[in-house]
TrEMBL record:
Keywords: Membrane, Signal, Transmembrane, Transmembrane helix. This is Ig-like domain-containing protein. The chain crosses the membrane at residues 246-268. Residues 25-124, 146-235 form the Ig-like domain. The lineage of its organism: Eukaryota, Metazoa, Echinodermata, Eleutherozoa, Asterozoa. The keyword Transmembrane helix applies. SUPFAM superfamilies: Immunoglobulin. The keyword Signal applies. InterPro entries: Ig-like_dom (IPR007110), Ig-like_dom_sf (IPR036179), Ig-like_fold (IPR013783), Ig_sub (IPR003599). Residues 1-21 form the signal peptide.
Amino acid sequence: MAVSFLLTTFALICLHTSAAGAEEPKIQGGNPRYATVGSCITFTCVLYGNLTGGDTLVRWIYNNQKLTSCGCDEDKKLTDLILGNDTYKACSLTIDPVTESSGGLYECKAHSVGLGVNAAVQLVINGRDSKLYLLDPSTGAVLDDPEYGPVCVQSGTTRQFECRIQDARPGVWNFTWMLGNQTITSKRRTRTGAGQVNVSRSHIVTNPGNETRERNLTCLATSSDLSLNATVLITFCAESEYAKTVLRVLVSICVTATIATIITHILLCKHYGYI
């Protein structure tokens, strides 16, 4: 008799435990979840057991603040979610876009008559890798691409270069320009806000006319936790023969036109008796 009583009590305890477990909400997709900056992600909280009643209230909580809620008189209604042959009630939360500050613990809190249970999921942010490029501002060409080759700065001229960080992480970035082993400009600071953005700085290289050596132009960009650099080979080249020929032709045309104008003026003056 005592054994039968103990078995019955044990069975009731197991049934109660099973029922209580069935009433816990569950968040789909595993834990933790991963997302990249700029993307979007949706969490779906599925209700089971007694939580499927019409009086159930679901709230999504992040950093102790309500983001959204589902229920009769809430932000939105509970939706039907079909899993296999069964239909369950669910409440979803969408984060769009994901930012650097979106990471952390998200809680789905479900409340029904005499019952309050919750589930949680951790969101881990995978930021896009920041990349540095040396560009030609006039054409947008990527000069540090190995296929581009050396960059010519003609004798007696200047050429502008742009140092651009693609998907720069939030914070303060310091830019330093180096020509060969010599630092030519440094401590140019740019501060970025939330999210990942593109940041750029420009520098002008001058060929004084007597420089013939090839040297590397390097842009170095550093933040509190990251250092990036890009380098391009500069050739201080002489003016091309084609350009010289074009210039000579233009000068010759200008001189000829000037002489023709003077002669015409003299002839007109003689014709009208001014000379």
